[in-house]
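Exercise 7b. Backbone tokens:
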């Protein structure tokens, strides 16, 4: 199993709009692009005062599935245009980790 971790931030006033965009458009679009090997997508949210931080963790069954999603520049962030309009800032690169243990 592989985890792809990415971070982005919105202004506090945009946080709910961004979360709704993720749920209604971005995540379904990812699912359509990567139907096999993507086990799940987790969304984490944290209030940081004037900003709200978001972390997405995408869980892939194997390296082949991760590479099918990530493409030739495997760690480049996937940030659709609609998300770029809402985000205040974001990581240009995602981090990939080999999962060594899961408890549960």
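Sequence design result:
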């Amino acid at each position: 199993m592989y985890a792809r971790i990415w971070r982005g931030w919105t202004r506090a006033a945009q946080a709910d709009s961004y979360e709704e965009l993720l749920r209604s458009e971005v995540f379904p679009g990812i699912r359509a692009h990567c139907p096999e090997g993507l086990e799940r997508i987790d969304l984490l949210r944290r209030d940081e005062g004037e900003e709200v931080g978001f972390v997405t963790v995408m869980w892939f069954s194997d390296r082949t599935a991760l590479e099918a999603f990530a493409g030739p520049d495997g760690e480049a962030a996937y940030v659709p245009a609609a998300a770029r309009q809402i985000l205040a800032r974001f990581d240009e690169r995602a981090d990939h980790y080999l999962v060594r243990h899961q408890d549960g």
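Instructor comment: The chain has one domain: 2-98. The chain has a mean pLDDT of 94.
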